[in-house]
Design a protein that fits this description.
The chain is built from 4 helices and 5 strands; from the N terminus they run ααααβββββ. Strand 1 and strand 2 form a beta hairpin. The chain is α+β, with helices and mostly antiparallel strands. It starts with a helix and ends with a strand. The protein is about 40% helix and about 35% strand. Strands 1, 2, 3, 4 and 5 form a 5-stranded antiparallel sheet that branches.
């Protein structure tokens, strides 16, 4: 009888712990609640869409301060160099966003990677280079569209 009571208490404790301390309850649910309470924050998907658009077609409207933004200018310079190069036949970039987080004042930090794929004229082999960017900043413009304030700090891989 005592063994059955102990087993019952252990099973009840396990069930309670699983219900209240599971990964979803500790990590996923609080994050979801935070994003619901802060609708201005960009999700990883929103950030990835914005950043992919920026790297595909660096439009100044996707940036805070438009064409005077230093991040915009650095991407423009990189693309202009590849466009002007006689040895680069074509290029594309693939963006991946592993994480976003609150940056305060309705802004979002974004950590992401950009893989630059280059094809060359002649016999040179195609290459890929991946850059990792930390703490880029996304906000919303007056129309509610996400825009990039800061490209982030690059760490070449």
């Amino acid at each position: 009888m005592i063994a059955a009571a102990v087993l019952l208490v252990l099973l009840a404790g396990y069930g309670y712990g699983k219900a209240h301390y599971a990964k979803d309850k500790q990590i996923v649910q609080p994050i979801q609640e935070y994003y619901k309470a802060n609708p201005d924050l960009a999700s990883s998907e929103d950030a990835e869409d914005l950043l992919q658009d920026i790297w595909d077609d660096n439009d100044s409207e996707d940036w805070v301060n438009g064409s005077s933004n230093t991040g915009y200018l650095s991407i423009k310079k990189l693309h202009d160099n590849w466009d002007d190069s006689e040895s680069v036949a074509n290029y594309n970039e693939v963006v991946s966003v592993p994480s976003t987080g609150p940056a305060g004042s309705g802004k979002t930090y974004v950590n992401y990677t950009v893989t630059h794929n280059l094809s060359y004229t002649g016999d040179k082999d195609d290459t890929s280079v991946t850059d990792t960017y930390q703490n880029g900043i996304i906000s919303q413009d007056s129309d509610g569209d996400y825009v990039l304030e800061k490209l982030g700090t690059p760490n070449a891989k």
